[in-house]
Specification:
The complex is a heterotetramer, with two copies of chain A (about 260 residues) and two copies of chain B (about 300 residues).
Chain A (H helix, E strand, L loop, with lengths): L7 H11 L6 E3 L4 H11 L6 E4 L3 E2 L21 E2 L2 H10 L5 E4 L3 E2 L5 E2 L2 E2 L8 E2 L6 H7 L2 E5 L23 H6 L7 E5 L3 E5 L5 E6 L5 H6 L7 E7 L5 H11 L8
Parallel strand pairs in A: 1-2, 1-5, 5-10, 10-11, 13-14
Antiparallel strand pairs in A: 2-3, 3-4, 6-7, 8-9, 11-12, 12-13
Helix pairs in contact in A: 1-2, 2-7
Chain B lengths: L6 H8 L5 E4 L8 H9 L5 E4 L4 H9 L3 E6 L11 H8 L4 E4 L2 H13 L3 E4 L6 H5 L4 E3 L8 E5 L5 E9 L5 E2 L7 H7 L2 E9 L2 H5 L5 E3 L6 E4 L17 H10 L3 H13 L4 H16 L15
Parallel strand pairs in B: 1-2, 1-8, 2-3, 3-4, 8-10, 10-12
Antiparallel strand pairs in B: 5-7, 6-7, 8-9, 9-11
Helix pairs in contact in B: 1-2, 2-3, 3-4, 5-7
The chains are: A alpha/beta (about 260), B alpha/beta (about 300).
């Protein structure tokens, strides 16, 4: 049987979903991370609990949520609480296993910039949305994952602005900061997967089928190290793609 | 004594030029009707505080109401960039003060509970702390690591929309409850808009649902559909099409101005705005009922 | 996976000698059934924390379960003195640590939200601060007056009673909600007892009512009438006669011991205890229904 | 018409109720303060809002509440919140106009002891209930009132333990402490009313009908000053007594 055709987004979503474990409590946004969680829940992680910064716990949306505050996340959810409560009782207290992060820049040590492009914060070249919930998620969730297309401008050597902590200048600095969360565990791109090594530097640990080390190196803003144990990811299965395309995002809004 | 007045009267009486305003509602119950009335009345030099400025503040900035923005995330939720606020920040036409969501919401929590600040654990992402001197370090008197402190936010006025309230401002709300309660207690004055005005006895059937008590409310306004294009859980849907449309409109200053003229300045009030949206939109946003299971309080 | 087990199993598995226990419920939903089961199992050297020890801790102290009391008000509510705890404190047979109500509840709030302490404004009543070195001063980094800090309370176990829960521990509660949510999030382990075990779909009809999520719960036990002589709003009344009766019983060590023998040690479980109370008491505590007005969440 | 007969408790309740103003938000316990508030609400202060430390706002009890957590306070109340919320959002924030206080000892400067009798806190001669909510109510309510029988042991020169602040060593010290609340405004006893003078010392400002200055002096533990403008309180009216006896406490639990 010839491999199934899939988009870059589908590839990232499928691989991210496999990183989730049954029973994980995941702090999640809408879009691709939401699809990855729902896919995991329908396959290997039926007891996954999704919580949203809007204060929603255990949503069971009847349609694809289009924003973090979509009313479909509320009707039929397990619990709804205030925003102060979701950040303090859940996240700061340490009830969150997994956070999904995004940002315009992710650097060599998994640090994230979602605030400004350019050196001067007070005169931004490009004003990005800002932290939202990500500063605290990056610090306090047990594990963080990032999904992003593999492009050089997204992966600079060092972020222009430190919105959310990865391993800072290296794992030792993060450890000294005594954050409860373990930091970025994996960055899933459309070329493969990067994971932090002993020093906290992101190295290429897996390639998707037909992708090459050269492509990954060319599209990374620092001299990308390749794991001695470089793996190839398992292709998306028919079942995974069917769930995504037929059940979760039938209009293909986030699957392109 | 009833606090029920018209929204135009409430805005005229309780919002002054130069005020710090908090229009509450995280992605839900966003009080667009009040925002539009503030635009209509030409209020100026406001400091607009909100975790997520959303379209409501994009429109108020476009209309020239704002001097400063206090926020934690500027985006058009589910769509992309918040073009007008973003460009005003990039071009230095708007002052700003920035926090994380938790920082912003902790500021309200402090303001609402009468504390000068709230502590938060460190995150090691220190650039925002360097950029914003109002974020401070706090020594733990129990010998643990330093904490972060954010200062209380006590807006001059909060506008809070709810599903139902009595004429004194005792209010039931449900669905995403974001920071409505905190904003109401933190603010010096509270303008409450409500989908429905109900009898006090109806509020009293479910006191645990009353998140905002009348004793903190200055004015109550009956404004059905006040949140469009945002939504009120159980009453109407979020108008995602408008959020997409705004992404187009707000790309041009001219289109933005025409939109404001047509939909805000040239409409007398929110009822007219809603009517003007037309039956197709009304139908698209209609939702089927899904009732909660009642609880028994007992006759004691 | 269901967490539904028997109460005796829950206490045996999750309460260890020497633990700090928080039996939650400010004058409402007090988990007497769990307290009695702890007595039955002869747990020892517990640190008993509760804003108001109430009869539940009076009985546990009488039974010799406690080494220490952490509290903010020791009284028999509406009746008078809490004789056994009071005499143990006066005679030095029980260690204690004392706060105001706000201090006690702030400690739980800190514990529940992952902070090392909570700040409170000063009250100028400094004697308690002098008597309890765990109450500290906190410098305001914004230059205001010093604040008071109380340390986080993170009990080893919290016992929380609710009106209805699903088998995973997602729980609806209403009426006086005291510090149940805070105790559940602050504790390392949570034993939940419930008047009714309902289907998850029933919880999901009203997510705003879910104050305790299953994800913090270790065990769920189905114990109707668990609160007697306290009460569960809408389910049964407070047994004020028993509170008065306890004031008599607890005046004599012998009577207290016989009461414990008859009502705790010689009853197998709470069902037997309730049955033994008899039909007259059951009838006296029965309440007529008074339902909340449902809210509409909408079918989205 | 001859004056109506009434008990000491009725006398105190009626006089306390008259100190309440329409629209006051009152932090109240059960028993006599609860009756004073309900009486005020039914006479000159229909817009009085009663809040209880159990987290109840605007209770409309259908029966006489027998404890601070009586379920009759909940059914039909305007709002119910958590205990943290009632103390922080309401009391610490400054939403409370009036607090009712009690205690085993009230001293010359209105300081209250509800903690221990005896000099050594760690070896109490008599262990009292402790602060409960009163430490914060005394500091943060705009006005505080005390109702207590006039007995020498209840009014020592100085409290054994400072559970709740009156004027400390005098008004200047309280002012230096910068508390938001105004402190004790009046102590209503069965002999008359004491109010703080310019220095914060409680002085006798009113006597109930047929009570004497001598009785007051004999039953006060410090040399009691008498106001130059000593008044006589207006006797309880037929209407006030009828509301108390027929509507509010028909079994006379708190009226003896």
């Amino acid at each position: 049987m010839s491999p199934l055709a899939y988009s870059s987004s589908e590839l990232m979503i499928v691989n991210a979903s496999r990183l989730l474990r049954d029973g994980d409590v995941v702090f999640v946004g809408v879009g691709q991370p939401n699809l990855a969680c729902n896919l995991a829940k329908r396959t290997h992680a039926p007891n996954l609990v999704m919580i949203y910064e809007a204060g929603v716990i255990g949503a069971e949306p009847a349609r694809l949520p289009l924003s973090i505050g979509d009313p479909t996340l509320i009707s039929g959810a397990l619990a709804v609480c205030s925003m102060y409560d979701i950040f303090s009782f859940y996240l700061q207290r340490g009830c969150v296993d997994v956070g999904f992060m995004g940002g315009a820049q992710i650097d060599r040590f998994g640090n994230i910039n979602a605030t400004v492009i350019g050196a001067d914060y007070s005169k931004p070249k490009v004003r990005l949305p800002g932290s939202g919930g990500s500063q605290e998620i990056a610090a306090w969730a047990n594990r963080c994952y990032i999904m992003t297309p593999h492009q050089k401008r997204r992966f600079p050597e060092k972020v222009d602005f430190l919105t959310s902590a990865g391993y800072l200048s290296g794992r030792a600095e993060r450890e000294a900061a005594a954050l409860r969360g373990g930091g970025v565990q994996a960055v899933v791109t459309d070329l493969g997967i990067m994971e932090p090594d002993h020093s906290g530097e992101l190295v290429l640990t897996a390639l998707h089928p037909q992708k090459t080390v050269e492509e990954a190196r060319e599209n990374t803003g620092w001299p990308l190290k390749i794991s001695d144990d470089l793996k190839e990811t398992t292709p998306a299965s028919e079942q995974e793609l069917a769930i995504l395309r037929l059940e979760l995002d039938p209009d293909g809004l986030y699957l392109k | 004594m009833s606090k029920l007045i018209s929204l135009s009267e409430a805005i005229a009486s309780f919002v002054q030029d130069g005020d710090t305003l908090y229009a509450a509602g995280f992605t839900h119950l966003i009080p667009f009707a009040a925002g539009h009335e503030i635009i209509r009345q030409g209020k100026k030099n406001l400091t607009l505080a909100r975790a997520t400025p959303d379209l409501i503040y994009d429109q108020m900035v476009a209309a020239g109401c704002a001097r400063k923005m206090v926020f934690s995330y500027i985006g058009n939720p589910g769509v992309g960039s918040l073009r007008i606020v973003r460009s005003a920040l990039e071009n230095g036409r708007l002052e700003w003060e920035e926090y994380s969501h938790f920082g912003m919401i902790s500021r309200l929590q402090a303001g609402a509970t009468g504390l000068p600040f709230m502590p938060m654990k460190q995150t090691a992402a220190t650039d925002l702390e360097k950029a914003n001197p109002r974020i401070k370090r706090l020594t733990d008197p129990y010998g643990g690591p330093d904490l972060i402190a954010v200062p209380a936010l006590n807006p001059d006025v909060a506008v809070v929309h709810v599903q139902r309230a009595d004429q004194n401002g005792n209010a039931h709300l449900w669905g995403i409850i974001g920071e409505q309660k905190e904003a109401a207690f933190a603010a010096k004055k509270v303008i409450l808009t409500a989908e429905e005005i109900v009898d006090e006895t109806s509020i009293r059937t479910d006191p645990n649902r009353t998140l905002i008590p009348g004793l903190v409310v200055s004015a109550v306004c009956h404004i059905p559909k006040a949140c469009h294009p945002s939504y009120a859980q159980g009453y109407y849907d979020r108008d995602n099409q408008f959020y997409l449309q705004w992404d187009q409109i707000s790309q041009s200053l001219e289109n933005t101005q025409s939109w404001l003229d047509e939909w805000v300045f040239d409409t007398k009030d929110h009822a007219e705005y809603w009517h003007k949206l037309g039956r197709q939109v009304h139908n698209r946003l209609r939702v089927k009922p899904r009732q909660s299971t009642p609880v028994n309080y007992g006759e004691y």
